[in-house]
Structures are given as C-alpha cells and as structure tokens.
Amino acid sequence: MKKILLILLPVILIAGFTLLYQKVNADDGTKTGGLMDKKILIAYFSWGGNTRSIAQKIHAQTGGDIFEIKPVTPYPNDYNETAYGIAKEQKDKGIHPPINNIDAAPYDVIFVGTPAWWYTMAPPVMTFLENNNFEGKTIVPFITHGGGGGYTIDKDMEKLAKGSTVLKPLVVYENGGPGIDKEIKSWIDKL
Ligand SMILES: Cc1cc2nc3c(=O)[nH]c(=O)nc-3n(C[C@H](O)[C@H](O)[C@H](O)COP(=O)(O)O)c2cc1C
C-alpha cells in the first residue's frame, strides 16, 4: 500500500500543478471583461492606413477574426481624386459601393472601423452594415479622423445595422500617436 502511494503521489502532484498552471495562464490577456467568451470580428475599411493600424492594435488585444472591407473597385491612390472625386460623389449621391463580403452571422461582437469621410463613415462601411443582419449583435465603432472628430458616426451605424446595440466609439485623431496602445486598452477594458 505504502509503495503504491509513493508511486502515485508524484503523479497526483504533477497533475495538480499542471491543472493549476493551466488555470493561472488561461487568461492570456486577449479577451477581457465584457468580451470574455464572445465571438469577435474586427471589420474595418482603411484608405491611408490609419484605421488599419488601429484595427490591428485592437485585434492584438481582443483576439478574434479581423477582416479588411475592400470596395470591388479600389479608390485611386491620389488623395484629391479620392477625396474630392469619387468619395465626394458617393457621399452626395448616397452610393454604397459593392465590397468583398464576409458573413457576420457567427459573431456576437463586431468592431467596425472607419475613417471619417465627409462627416460620416466611409461608403464601403455603409455597404458592409447593410449587407449583414446585425439583429441582437453588438457593434463597437472605432473611427479615425483628420480633426473633425467622430461626428455622429455611431448613430449613423445604428441606423444601418438595424436591431444592433452600438457601443461608445473609440475616436482617434489620424493614427493616434504614441499613447494609442494604452488608450485602446482602457477603452476595451470598459466595454
Ligand atoms: C475622402 C476623405 C474624406 C475625409 N473626410 C474627413 C472629414 O469629414 N473629417 C475629418 O476629420 N477627416 C476627414 N478625412 C481625413 C481622414 O478621416 C483621416 O485622415 C483618417 O485617419 C484616414 O484614415 P485611413 O488612413 O484609415 O484611410 C477625410 C479623408 C478622405 C480621404
């Protein structure tokens, strides 16, 4: 009996410590607070890279899937052609251009990223919100801008994503500068 106990004791101890180690390390810091156990998608559109960089930083903190919304016909590389040409025309005429698509159905929480374009979200993001059913889902907007702020983009998203709950947006000037990682963390912690 003593012999059996002597053999079993190390096995039990190792198993116990392994379980304890797994429990302590289960929270790898990628999902916290209200996002725990939720299926997360980070969907964003970016023309110049600012919103993409914020999307990647959010993704690094939340985990989940990340998806770049892209119009089927890309915008020109030239700023004036995009800003005062096609984007202005889409804004004025209410055009929501066709995009690459993703099925948002499997996700509970969808972070939706956009640059401010002509006082609202960029038109491809409007297409994304219209193409999917967001009923019962949570939308978390993040917005980059060139000085105008977040406008009413969260409210505009609410109108397009019918039946969703739209949370407080993260509003970032251009790429957010050096303090942005901390800012993202404290925003995510409060969700
Ligand atoms: C077509 C277009 C329209 C824009 N309209 C606005 C605007 O209304 N208000 C604002 O603050 N910035 C505006 N900007 C600046 C962008 O919102 C800002 O530079 C943003 O960070 C760009 O994000 P991105 O690099 O991901 O494309 C506009 C830029 C473009 C190209």
Descriptive terms for the model:
single chain; 191 residues; alpha/beta; Rossmann fold; seven-stranded mixed beta sheet; 6 helices; 7 strands; binds flavin mononucleotide
Could you explain the architecture of this structure?
The protein is globular. It has a single domain, classed as 3-Layer(aba) Sandwich (Rossmann fold), CATH 3.40.50. Strands 1, 2, 3, 4, 5, 6 and 7 form a 7-stranded mixed sheet that branches. The chain is an alpha/beta fold and 191 residues long. Helix content is 41%, strand content 18%. The structure holds flavin mononucleotide (FMN).
The number of strands is 7
Cα distance spanning the termini: 55 Å
| Overall CATH class | Alpha Beta
From the alpha carbons, calculate the radius of gyration and give it in angstroms: 22 Å
Q: Profile the largest sheet.
A: 7 strands, mixed
CATH superfamily: Flavodoxin domain
State the helicity in percent bands: 40-55%
The helix-strand sequence is: HEHEHEEHEHEEH
Mean pLDDT reading: 89
The assigned structural class equals alpha/beta
**How much β-strand is present in the residues?**
15-25%
- Count the DSSP helices: 6
Number of domains: 1
Q: In CATH terms, what is the architecture?
A: 3-Layer(aba) Sandwich
Per the principal axes of the C-alpha atoms, what is the gross shape? globular
Low-confidence residue ranges: 16-29
What is the CATH third-level topology name?
Rossmann fold
Which ligands appear in the coordinates? flavin mononucleotide
